[in-house]
Design a protein that fits this description.
Two copies of one chain form a homodimer. Chain A is mainly alpha-helical. Chain A is built from six helices and two strands, in the order ααββαααα. Chain A has a two-stranded antiparallel sheet. In chain A, a hairpin with a 5-residue loop joins β1 and β2. In chain A, α4 runs antiparallel to α5. The structure holds a DNA duplex (30 and 30 nucleotides).
DNA sequence: AGAGACTTTATAGTAGCTTCAAGGTCAAGC
DNA sequence: GCTTGACCTTGAAGCTACTATAAAGTCTCT
């Protein structure tokens, strides 16, 4: 039968590390699976679908908490999906806000960058001086935008 | 004199937690300050300015590594500031890339959201179905955009 | 029987803090 | 002189979502 998977099968099929699958189990997103005699995890179709769901949510950059929330809703099939909409709308809001902050940030960075077009010594560098005297974020501030990703490095 | 600060003074003036100042010291961004008889840290104007510099860089969402780099350049005043420009340009590149990823993400989320405008039960919810069957990120994927900030929550 | 690919658990590391615990210091008030 | 309370000290743990490592057990093939 095709609906019995070991952790490595699932990992290969869905292109996710095995450790991540165990981590999701540890975090309660996946429930504890059956085991073979040799104590290997065994997964079926339902678990494969659940993991797919989780991975899609992650690809949309939801937190594990948001995903936990959606999974709870998914597990209560008669409930009406207004709450699903609410979770998604909140997430869309997070993303929109983040984009706004990053655009502000980009403006400030370009402004700063424009202070040093001509070569000079760092003692007189307009950028370094700007960084020492610029108004701080808390005054009308950009809070924090989160530029550095975990998968999208360099 | 106004140029002797304890850690709490500095923290209040620059609106940063005292623990964060100690953390920057631990990470080598600030050097070990003088101490009072009672072993309290004492800071002067130069340290205050250095911390201001660091906080401005953080407000522009640079990593501590990027900031360390800029501080090294700042500490070598005769060096020419081409490298300062390079650090900043690289950072501007990071931000631009992040904005691009988030815009992709926003499109996908809105697409998904459009699947459930009419109220229904979660069993039939187009969003939950979409999340279970959507193409995964790895096929042409958005890698990871990083939506959830540390200071800008909810 | 032995090699090699797979699995198991537990543990530590990543970034940039934040929070906690257990205690030491200092100025003011009674 | 003694207490109260605000401040300071260090060290360790917690946060997110993994990733990496180690040491050991299992399975499959030859």
């Amino acid at each position: 039968m095709t609906n019995r998977y070991r952790i490595g099968d699932l990992a290969t099929q869905l292109a996710v590390p095995t450790q991540t699958i165990r981590y999701y189990e540890h975090e309660g997103l996946l429930s504890k699976p059956a085991r073979t005699e040799g104590n290997y995890r065994v997964y079926g179709i339902a678990e494969r679908e659940r993991l797919t769901f989780i991975l899609h949510c992650r690809a949309l950059d939801m937190t594990l908490d948001e995903i936990r929330h959606l999974l709870r809703l998914r597990d209560a099939p008669g409930q009406g999906c207004a709450e699903v909409n609410a979770v998604l709308d909140a997430h869309i809001g997070h993303v929109a806000e983040r984009i706004r902050l990053l655009n502000d940030l980009q403006l400030q960075l370009k402004d700063l960058r424009a202070r040093c077009e001509s070569p000079s010594t760092s003692k007189d560098c307009g950028i370094l001086q700007g960084l020492a005297s610029f108004p701080t974020a808390q005054d009308g501030g950009a809070s924090r935008a989160g530029v550095h990703g975990r998968r999208a490095q360099e």
